[in-house]
């Protein structure tokens, strides 16, 4: 397996072409095993993955502390290669409820101060607000990250789930390394306006949900039981008829994967990798087994015939159901 590198935009860092998204190790997809999560981060670093993605609100600091532990216990040579992408801004309460976003400059600096402590690092490589705060102009939020950069606490500004207008306003304020946004065979909305905009402005993409949260991994099934606090228990794409329809797309993909001697997850990740050198997929592996499968995608080459077959099996907009429940869709500047 060969993990090459890609550059996040024209001003961002060189990172492994696949990043590790650590969210599922703490939240949203049911219970995870802490020791296995730490071992997965170590295995990813050993395999050449340098980009680790987290958010301060993933189980209210739990995910950052887990990454902090993984970095502390990794060999120094690997720890030094790790680049941290951190999201902030989502507000929680002690019950875990979500209560909006805060992008005010004082809040940005406060969030960063706590994240640095929990992660046990002296700087964050890419720092971004998870969702646009509708009450705070993006220029102010990005400006505050700019001040953190001047002081050495942050290296680059990133964005998350924002649309073309906000991307332009942010890019007029400071150099933007990347936009983090959902992109997969069944979430192709960014192809219309957002991807042309980031390409025009020299901004990279860190793509999340490349397996649509496991839906198109080839491992999900109709009878899978989900805990009430699992995101997928409330996600439109995982409900009843929608799920049944979406899994037929996966079976179509499985035929192509089998012909190539690879897995469904590898085809799905390789497809995102094939969309352009400016795109870095984040894989949400939380066990070493899943990680090994995901990284195997780096060695899958899709030729024109493969891409045409994939397009036929899973046409753009083929998925049934929105990518988030309605209340969360409303927070997505990228969907307005
Ligand atoms: N900016 C944003 O708004 C935003 C939103 C969501 C996520 N993210 C970031 O993006 C990262 C990735 O997102 P995601 O977790 O939704 O992505 P994903 O890779 O689409 O989904 C991960 C899920 O797929 C399942 N899976 C099955 N086979 C897998 C394989 N071979 N490799 C990896 N996963 C496999 C895993 O379930 P099992 O473990 O049960 O097998 C896991 O729960 C997150 O960790 C987070 O850092 C950002």
From TrEMBL:
Every NADP-dependent oxidoreductase domain range: 18-313
A GO cellular component annotation in the UniProt record: cytoplasm
GO molecular function: oxidoreductase activity
UniProt KW Oxidoreductase keyword: yes
Keywords: Oxidoreductase
Top-rank taxon, per record: Bacteria
Keyword Mitochondrion part of the UniProt annotation: no
InterPro entries registered for this protein in UniProt: Aldo-Keto_reductase, NAD(P)_OxRdtase_dom_sf, NADP_OxRdtase_dom
PANTHER family recorded: AFLATOXIN B1 ALDEHYDE REDUCTASE, ALDO-KETO REDUCTASE YAKC [NADP(+)]
Protein's UniProt name: Oxidoreductase
Classification of source organism: Bacteria, Bacillati, Actinomycetota, Actinomycetes, Kitasatosporales
């Amino acid at each position: 397996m060969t993990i090459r590198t890609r550059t996040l935009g024209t001003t961002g860092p060189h990172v492994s072409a696949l990043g590790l998204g650590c969210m599922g190790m703490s939240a949203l997809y049911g219970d995870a095993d802490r020791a296995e999560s730490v071992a997965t981060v170590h295995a990813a670093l050993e395999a050449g993955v340098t980009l680790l993605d987290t958010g301060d609100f993933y189980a209210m600091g739990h995910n950052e502390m887990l990454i902090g532990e993984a970095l502390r216990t990794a060999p120094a040579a690997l720890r030094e290669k790790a680049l941290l992408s951190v999201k902030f801004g989502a507000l929680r309460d002690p019950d875990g409820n979500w209560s909006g976003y805060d992008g005010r400059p004082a809040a940005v600096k406060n969030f960063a101060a706590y994240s640095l402590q929990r992660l046990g690092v002296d700087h964050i490589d890419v720092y971004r607000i998870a969702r646009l705060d509708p009450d705070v102009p993006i220029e102010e939020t990005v400006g505050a990250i700019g001040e953190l950069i001047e002081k050495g606490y942050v290296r680059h500004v990133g964005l998350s789930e924002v649309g073309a207008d906000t991307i332009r306003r942010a890019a007029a304020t400071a150099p933007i390394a990347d936009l983090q946004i959902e992109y997969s065979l069944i979430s192709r909305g960014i192809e219309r306006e957002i991807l042309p905009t980031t390409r025009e402005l020299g901004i990279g993409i860190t793509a999340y949900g490349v397996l649509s949260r496991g839906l198109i991994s080839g491992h999900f099934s109709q009878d899978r039981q989900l805990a009430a606090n699992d995101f997928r228990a409330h996600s439109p794409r995982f409900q009843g008829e929608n799920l049944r329809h979406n899994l037929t797309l996966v079976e179509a993909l499985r035929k192509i994967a089998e012909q190539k001697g690879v897995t469904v997850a590898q085809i799905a990740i390789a497809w995102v990798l094939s969309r352009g050198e400016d795109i870095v997929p984040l894989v949400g592996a939380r066990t070493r087994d899943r990680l090994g499968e995901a990284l195997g995608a780096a060695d899958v080459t899709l030729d024109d015939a493969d891409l045409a077959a994939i397009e036929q099996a899973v046409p753009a907009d083929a998925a049934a159901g929105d990518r988030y429940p309605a209340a969360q869709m409303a927070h997505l500047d990228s969907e307005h």
